[in-house]
């Protein structure tokens, strides 16, 4: 700790300044805003303080900056300024981003686009998750278009945007992309992106420090609020309540809200009715499971980004085998690229199969009846609902039997369980279907080939 000012150690002065401020502002505000300040040193007439996050820095500068300087000057006349810098190492959750200090005489030294993002409450953005890197296909085109609209519109186009879909299908990617785009094109707008979990954590902390006013102010003064994975609020009543108020306040002020969840608003469990209904007021866009075509384009795009030539056979193989989600698809590609880099061998279908052996086996075990139904329905171009329907027309009955047969072959489900998944059919119906398909396989080579193809696709 520097002791440039003559005489008393700066630590003693700092302790007195803090003591006086505490008396002036009260315990709660002191705890939230002033206690977390750390004295770095006093250098060249400038008192240098550190704090964990950008938001805290701005808040302290705006609310206590002048008073801090006055009090310090009363102790030491040589002090002319106070400077607060952000040191993310001081953060508990480690989410702040390091940057330039702010100068308390008024202006921010580090001004510019980055300032529009409130790194304190906002989680850091992954620079790779942009619109440019998002591959659009049938399953996600609606969600993508809605996200782009929100990011590019001059005025709020609809509110909220509610994105939903299964794990690893691109919800977080789209939200980051919105934030990046606004950062670029509307640097004066305040954008907060955070997980529902973090929202709750912030809220609870604010309550503990009896500082909910500051909490409300932080959230209600933004132009774009994006909360990810809101299913996390399920059963958390007081957080839901607070979120509901924040949400309403923002919407009333015509600020854009973007929400994501793993289900549509009305399927969110243990969620207050009025919140659920309010969440569905704007545009609700779902991201469907990937198709083979989308998986292939994503792989092509990622391989290009990695700057490696991957044989199309390998990409096709991966797109066939790894159907669960995009994250796993990416993981598999990264693995084979890293491996070939490491051992200096070209990527081939053979070494890919070898390398991903464990991963492919793991996906085998996860085949569900729903997946089978979906695949088979796609394959025969019938509606998914026909898997459950009572229709007996050959065009739907045969594919349904194929799906039952594959469910028996590829899952560990019992005949009655399978029957239930097919619109509550009896186990004897399933048994009959299995027998029928076995017969057909034995007598019709073309049919047998078709079934084997389906099976290979499902087995991954
Ligand atoms: P979610 O939030 O829905 O669980 P993420 O947005 O975290 O999923 O996506 C998981 C991974 O897959 C991320 O690395 C993301 O970049 C990638 N990803 C998902 N969808 C796409 C897409 N359409 N194009 C490119 N990458 C994608
Ligand atoms: Mg996510």
Rg to the nearest angstrom? Answer: 29 Å
Overall average pLDDT: 86
Label the structural class: alpha/beta
Task: Work out the number of β strands.
Answer: 9
What's the end-to-end separation, in Å? 61 Å
- Hetero groups: adenosine-5'-diphosphate, magnesium ion
- Outline the low-pLDDT stretches: 1-5, 92-119
Give, in order, the helices and strands.
HHEEHEEHEHEHHEHEHEHHHHHHHHHH
Number of helical segments with 4 or more residues = 19
**Roughly what fraction of the amino acids lie in strands?**
5-15%
Q: Percent range for helical residues?
A: 40-55%
Placed side by side, the strands forming the largest sheet appear as 6-7-8-5-9
Approximate shape: elongated
Q: Give the biggest beta sheet.
A: 5 strands, parallel
Salient structural properties:
460 residues; alpha/beta; 5-stranded parallel beta sheet; 9 strands; elongated; binds adenosine-5'-diphosphate; binds magnesium ion
Entry summary:
With 460 residues, the protein is an alpha/beta fold. It has helices at residues 10-25, 27-34, 54-75, 141-152, 171-185, 196-208, 212-220, 237-252, 273-279, 292-306, 312-321, 326-343, 349-355, 357-364, 369-379, 394-410, 415-421, 427-443, 445-459, and strands at 38-43, 46-51, 81-86, 102-103, 161-165, 191-195, 224-228, 256-261, 283-287. It has a five-stranded parallel β-sheet, with helices on both faces. Strands 1-2-3-4 form a four-stranded mixed β-sheet, with helices on one face.
Verbal overview:
The protein is of the alpha/beta class and 460 residues long. It contains 19 helices and 9 strands. The protein has helices at 10-25, 27-34, 54-75, 141-152, 171-185, 196-208, 212-220, 237-252, 273-279, 292-306, 312-321, 326-343, 349-355, 357-364, 369-379, 394-410, 415-421, 427-443, 445-459; strands at 38-43, 46-51, 81-86, 102-103, 161-165, 191-195, 224-228, 256-261, 283-287. The strands form 2 sheets. The chain has a 5-stranded parallel β-sheet, sandwiched between helices. A 4-stranded mixed β-sheet has the order 1-2-3-4, covered by helices on one side. The longest helix has 22 residues, at 54-75. The protein is elongated and about 100 Å long. It binds adenosine-5'-diphosphate (ADP) and magnesium ion.
